[in-house]
């Protein structure tokens, strides 16, 4: 049987540094064909956390659509997958099964779960940390290789503090993956991003509950389609260097720098979660000791690993030169993702300033965001921003804050601020 | 009576023997022709055992230090070679970060050779090109000479092998500026010196006594090409480009056929094969001859490298010294 390499890592950088330069940037594009390791796909467990707080009844379509979406996600579970449904209020309760345990998916258990979901009633508050904690307990007892959760909320995390949520997220980190979704108009983009970021999932908002069913089905299908449960990015860097940052740059910005686990003096690894047939970009920035013209060093060896097995690797190099024509070139992908990361920061800072009533900062940050979105051709973000600010001139980033903004538009701009687009081919010519 | 001896193995034999008791040679026959001894060669290629950056001794398969990441050079900063009566010295000079020149020597039964490859410093990893090329070229050259290939054809085979090696040095992803090197070699046979080159490394004839010294090569540079046609470099070519290399070995090279020139030395002398790290300081044949001491080949090569270093050592230096007529000089090694 022929084994095709399932992963491919490509490095994009300008390796030439001026004599006094010490910082080297590279974009590493990792693409998996998804054919997977020899043997079967990972075993999967899934927990669905559905918001059952009182606000879910306003309007009533929210609760009914959430139930339909949960039923669709349950239907998308293949036989044999372990699953459970959690009802989220001011505290978490089991919706299915009745006990704190996972159930093996079968025609019978799926039908029972869907019956239980139809009987959920909206009442009470919102403390998402307790929902996540119950999910963690459910997963703790599971041997599944890939543990995936979906968290759906329609509101803010009102019945526990941000610190309480952060402490629970820290306990859940590395235990399971979680996609977070907001439905309706009253959820917080920052909260959804925080959960998804800690638990290596995706975050999004669906103002219209009708979109939930498709979204739940596709999140579940994506989890079931992962060929690798726990992939890590492994980074070798030379003695005397320091890592400025390691970020996922596509499909969304995720700073991984602080998630390093040391493997040896020179090697650390960063969790990437599960991989299916997909392609992601990473931005690695390393600071090196000074070098002399003509000197070449290996600035980093970037590997994708599954346990101890290295799936693919790319080399980041640094070559010092006196030739300024070489050293002043900026790699278009590095420039593009530097801009995309700045775009995400500008949106988040601008919206935070706006919430805090700091009009000046909000106008300047959101203006810069509009400019960056325009420059990079990020039309989705440009559209979202146009709901929060009146764009006078996108090219110069001249904007005026809108007086009347639907709350959900600002939250959508926030939760989607981290979504990036890839560099257009024409920009690389 | 003084014992007769076998013509083949020199063992004592009795007068009535038909065959040698020792080696079986039929004593009525003359001594057999000596078996051809394959040519031997050595070169300066081969990286240092420890990392010059940190002293580490472990390197990745791609040739980077496992500790500090520094790329392992393809050659040492300074090498001295002696093979029979031949000698060569190469040094990184005073300004360059590493030695990108490579030099090699070869001897066959009656022919001696010297090869110099100068990595083009504006290319990527030039030392990989020059060291790869010098070894490949020498190997091919010696094989061809062992098969009694005429010197000119042997040099062409050597240049092809050097070009293949320089191209391989680029790896699977050559990039915009792949490794590149010059190539020059001298094949010194009884009665003739044949030189071949691609690029601007040179071979000189330095006669013993009163003869006229000569540069045997013509640089593959913009200015030398105009000079060879007897015209001045046009005004619209700036000085900085006049010396630019127009031919080289490497993945991006399009014309790698070596120029070949054969010269019949009028008497004894020496052939110098060298990189511009030396001749930039004594470009004319007469001034180079005047600066070259009358010493044994190794001392001569050392003195020429010292001359270049004392003059500023702007570039890597490589020089091979080949006495004419060729001496195998096996007794020395």
Overview of this protein structure:
By secondary structure, chain A is α+β, with helices and mostly antiparallel strands. Chain A folds into three domains: 7-39 and 229-329, Immunoglobulin-like, CATH 2.60.40; 44-224, 3-Layer(aba) Sandwich (Rossmann fold), CATH 3.40.50; 333-428, Four Helix Bundle (Hemerythrin (Met), subunit A) (Up-down Bundle). Chain A is 33% helix and 31% strand. Chain A contains twelve helices and 20 strands. Chain A has helices at residues 60-75, 107-118, 128-140, 162-172, 189-198, 212-224, 324-327, 332-355, 359-376, 379-386, 407-415, 425-428, and strands spanning 7-12, 16-17, 23-32, 44-51, 82-88, 92-96, 103-104, 146-153, 177-183, 203-206, 228-236, 242-250, 254-255, 261-262, 267-275, 279-287, 296-306, 309-320, 389-393, 398-401. In chain A, strands 4, 5, 6, 7, 8, 9 and 10 form a seven-stranded mixed β-sheet that branches. A six-stranded mixed β-sheet of chain A has the order 2-18-17-11-15-14, with no helix packed on it. A five-stranded antiparallel β-sheet of chain A has the order 1-3-16-12-13, covered by helices on one side. In chain A, strand 5 (82-88) and strand 6 form a beta hairpin. Residues 1-5 of chain A have low confidence and may be disordered. By secondary structure, chain B is α+β, with helices and mostly antiparallel strands. Chain B has two domains: 1-33; 38-46 and 75-332, PPM-type phosphatase domain (Phosphatase 2c, domain 1, 4-Layer Sandwich). Chain B has helices at residues 126-146, 151-168, 222-228, 239-242, 276-279, 285-291, 297-310, and strands spanning 4-5, 12-13, 40-43, 78-83, 86-91, 101-107, 112-118, 180-181, 183-189, 192-198, 202-207, 214-215, 249-250, 259-263, 269-274, 317-324. Chain B has a six-stranded antiparallel β-sheet, covered by helices on one side. In chain B, helix 1 (126-146) packs antiparallel against helix 2. The longest helix of chain B is centred in the middle third of the chain and has 21 residues, at 126-146. Chains A and B meet through strand 17 of A and loops of B.
């Amino acid at each position: 049987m022929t084994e095709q390499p399932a992963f491919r890592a490509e490095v994009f950088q300008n390796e030439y540094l001026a004599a006094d330069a010490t910082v080297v940037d590279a974009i590493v594009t990792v693409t998996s064909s998804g054919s997977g390791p020899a043997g079967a796909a990972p075993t999967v467990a899934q927990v669905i956390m559905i918001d059952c707080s009182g606000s879910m009844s306003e309007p009533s379509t929210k609760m009914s659509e959430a139930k339909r979406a949960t039923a669709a996600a349950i239907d998308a579970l293949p036989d044999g997958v372990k699953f459970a449904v959690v009802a989220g209020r001011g505290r978490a309760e089991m919706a299915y099964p009745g006990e704190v345990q996972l159930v093996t998916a079968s025609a019978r258990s799926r039908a029972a779960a869907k019956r239980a979901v139809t009987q959920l009633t909206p009442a009470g508050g919102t403390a998402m940390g307790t929902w996540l904690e119950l999910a963690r307990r459910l997963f703790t007892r599971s041997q599944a290789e890939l543990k995936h959760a979906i968290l759906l909320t329609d509101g803010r995390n009102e019945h526990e503090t941000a610190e309480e949520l952060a402490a629970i997220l820290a306990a859940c980190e590395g235990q399971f993956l979680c996609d977070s979704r907001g439905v309706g108009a009253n959820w917080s983009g920052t909260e959804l991003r925080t959960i998804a970021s800690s638990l290596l999932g995706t975050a999004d908002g669906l103002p219209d509950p009708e979109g939930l069913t498709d979204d739940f089905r596709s999140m579940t299908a994506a989890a079931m389609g992962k060929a690798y449960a726990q992939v890590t990015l492994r980074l070798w860097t030379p003695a005397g260097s320091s890592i400025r940052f390691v970020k996922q740059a596509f499909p969304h910005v995720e700073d991984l720098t602080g998630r390093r686990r040391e493997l040896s003096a020179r090697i650390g690894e960063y969790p990437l979660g599960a991989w299916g047939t997909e392609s992601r970009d990473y931005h690695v920035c390393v600071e090196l000791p000074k070098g002399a013209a003509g000197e070449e060093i290996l600035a980093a060896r970037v590997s994708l690993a599954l346990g101890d097995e290295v799936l693919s690797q790319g080399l980041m190099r640094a070559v010092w030169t006196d030739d300024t024509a070489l050293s002043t070139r900026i790699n278009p992908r590095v420039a593009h993702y530097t801009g995309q990361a700045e775009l995400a920061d500008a949106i988040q800072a601008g919206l935070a300033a706006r919430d805090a009533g700091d009009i000046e900062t909000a106008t300047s940050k959101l203006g810069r965001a509009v400019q960056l979105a325009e420059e990079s051709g990020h039309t989705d973000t440009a559209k979202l921003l146009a709901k929060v600010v009146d764009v006078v001139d996108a090219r110069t980033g001249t904007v005026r804050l809108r007086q009347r903004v639907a709350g959900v538009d600002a939250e959508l701009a926030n939760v989607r601020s981290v979504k990036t687009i890839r560099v257009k081919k024409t920009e690389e010519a | 009576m003084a014992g007769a001896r076998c013509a083949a193995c020199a063992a004592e034999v009795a007068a009535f023997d038909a065959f040698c008791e020792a080696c079986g040679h039929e004593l009525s026959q003359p001594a057999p022709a000596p078996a051809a001894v394959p040519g031997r060669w050595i070169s300066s290629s081969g990286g240092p055992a420890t990392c010059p950056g940190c002293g580490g001794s472990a390197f990745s398969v791609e040739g980077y230090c496992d500790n500090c990441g520094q790329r392992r050079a393809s050659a040492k900063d300074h090498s001295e070679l002696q093979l029979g009566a031949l000698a060569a010295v190469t040094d990184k000079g005073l300004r360059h970060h590493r030695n990108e020149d490579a030099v090699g020597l070869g001897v066959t039964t009656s022919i001696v050779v010297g090869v110099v490859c100068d990595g083009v410093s504006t290319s990527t990893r030039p030392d990989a090109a020059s060291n790869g090329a010098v070894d490949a070229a020498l190997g091919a050259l010696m094989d061809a000479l062992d098969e009694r290939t005429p010197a000119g054809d042997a040099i062409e085979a050597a240049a092809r092998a050097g070009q293949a090696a320089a191209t391989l040095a680029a790896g699977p992803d050559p990039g915009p500026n792949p490794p590149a090197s010059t190539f020059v070699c001298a094949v010194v046979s009884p009665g003739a010196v044949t030189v071949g080159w691609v690029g601007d490394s040179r071979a000189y004839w330095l006669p013993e006594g009163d003869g006229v010294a000569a540069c045997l090569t013509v640089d593959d540079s913009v200015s030398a090409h105009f000079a060879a046609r007897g015209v001045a470099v046009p005004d619209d070519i700036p000085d900085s480009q006049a010396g630019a290399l127009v031919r080289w070995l490497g993945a991006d090279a399009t014309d790698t056929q070596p120029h070949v020139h054969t010269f019949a030395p009028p008497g004894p002398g020496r052939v110098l094969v060298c990189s511009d790290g030396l001749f930039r300081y004594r470009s004319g044949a007469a001034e180079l001859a005047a600066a070259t001491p009358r010493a044994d080949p190794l001392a001569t090569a050392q003195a020429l490298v010292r001359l270049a270093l004392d003059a500023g050592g702007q570039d890597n230096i490589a020089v091979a010294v080949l006495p004419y007529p060729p001496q195998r000089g096996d007794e020395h090694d």
